[in-house]
Amino acid sequence: MKRKLLNKELNRLDVKAFKDAPKTPLILVLENIRSLHNIGSVFRTADAFLLEKIYLCGITATPPHKDIRKTALGATESVTWEYEKDSLSLINRIKKTHHCMAVEQAEGAERLDTFIPLPDKPYVFVFGNEVKGVSQEVVNACDGVLEIPQLGTKHSLNIAVSAGVVVWDFWTKLNRQKKMF
Q: What parts of the chain have a pLDDT lower than 70?
């Protein structure tokens, strides 16, 4: 039988240690996300994988908000975040230093399962509105598009689930590459 670990046995970082820790070279952009619970969940994912930053764009709500806090469980304090009204201007600015990819279903999209991150390049992944997805103008401005393969009857995953899947995949592949070199 396996005994579940107590929270105090997990050796988690405190906020200061998190801020000082080396970050995974990944920024998330949330474009026009309506659900405060989705926003909070993405903050928790960003905390779990030591991501560089989150940009909240357009109608995406910002902390502090009780419904974001409810799912973020303190991650809004550890993860660096910034609000930018115009996601297109942000992408045009940030792609000078980062490889920007929309997470979307689009012609010519690269399947997540075949995606190999460049080891020496920081990335930005853009996640869009729960109904409309990433805006076409932002898709056009990005360096590429990642698509999560799906086999069922639904056309999409929840944005928080998508972020978890994509971030886990990126983190795993990046760390596997580091071990190879």
A: 179-181
